[in-house]
């Protein structure tokens, strides 16, 4: 059941009415939301609900055992056991068949019994929607109890709700357990404690934003550029290949951030606040900054539970480099077990590590220069002035002050992001090399792409421009508009969406992870 469908709208309308107007007690609302979440998941395949319940039961049992254990070793053994079982569960569906096939054709020349492989394929390739997300939520519950951020939840149905909460089930955001359960009592009683239990204006704008990104921008860019070009890159002109790659960069952003906007907006309509998941990631000046802006809930999960477990930056530069590379390698494998995903994660990790090494060495050089000049008062003043002087090159063009150094960093980072998404999108290394080798087709005629693709591409780029302060200012103006004007704007939006959108809704890209 996809968000941008009439079927979901009907389902949510029933849940919304029952939640706010029929069931008024906290326990009743927990049961309602849990049942609604399992119904939502069963609309894909009822067997998925068995897996979801199994993961939740494992998480609840592990959390209970952690709660009654007082000594370090039993607690650690319990946490590791629960974590390993979660990883084995996730690994079977995401990697087992792929691993067996690799071993079969690498070491046995494809001689393993075909019926066995077909049976494994029928089970392990039936990738349940959202399995990576609810597995990470389940593991967050275990980790937060182990790290003493929270006590085990007494009611198992609350654990079921946390792991299955339908607005965030399929593709996040990954709300960590401590934050979810700390806010749960207030979320369930918004209508009794808050003057305005629903942030309705914000919810509506988030949902409309998500629909615009997914149904218009992502769809048009995919149909006009990405799908036809990547279907046969060898027959495309160099410029077509480059435009298609940049288009995919914005497709994956519009598709995923569009889903996140809708998920956050739908949760808000039920009184549940979720963290921001994207913050203009393509204006990042470094890889580290990119990961603070892209899929923020996932990055936070990796930082809190993986990077810090590796030691973070507490044990010297070498250990920090290992932690960064290891964390991002895990991020790559989380998306899939194919070689391009491993290369993608390794590339992200090496880039983050290189930035950290450069920052540490630069800081040491500046400190050494100041210490060397400390014996001479004039030299010290000069060294301090140099270190404090803005190290940017400002030029004035058409009335604007342009920071060339910042512009170069933005451009270089955007090139890196596009290369990363090329690796990410490819199923095999051969697809990557085919695209790169096709870039020499400078004399190939333009016949795959229409110039109109530049319109949605420019519109997608403009989404990165407004700052948070600007958005808040315009939102404040929107809130003050009369209700009739807001209603008319929403109606016009859906009329326009119905005119320009294609038939059907393509699955969200991150449903595959």
Secondary structure elements and their pairing?
Layout lengths: L5 H17 L3 H17 L3 H23 L3 H36 L6 H11 L6 H16 L9 H9 L12 H12 L1 H4 L6 H32 L6 H32 L17 H7 L2 H12 L9 H19 L3 H34 L4 H12 L5 E4 L2 E4 H22 L3 H10 L15 H9 L5 H12 L3 H18 L13
Antiparallel strand pairs: 1-2
Low-pLDDT stretches = 386-390
Largest pleated sheet: 2 strands, antiparallel
The H-and-E topology, N to C, reads as: HHHHHHHHHHHHHHHHEEHHHHH
Strands side by side in the biggest sheet: 1-2
Query: How far do the termini sit from each other?
Result: 17 Å
Share in helix? over 70%
| Strand percent estimate | under 5%
The total of helices stands at 21
**Backbone CA Rg:** 25 Å
Name the overall outline: globular
Structural class: mainly alpha
Look at the structure and give the mean pLDDT. Answer: 87
Work out the number of β strands: 2
How would you characterize this protein structure?
The structure is a single chain. This protein has 513 residues and is mostly helical. The protein has 21 helices and two strands. The protein has a two-stranded antiparallel sheet. Helix 3 runs parallel beside helix 6 and helix 15 runs antiparallel to helix 16. About 1% of the residues have low confidence.
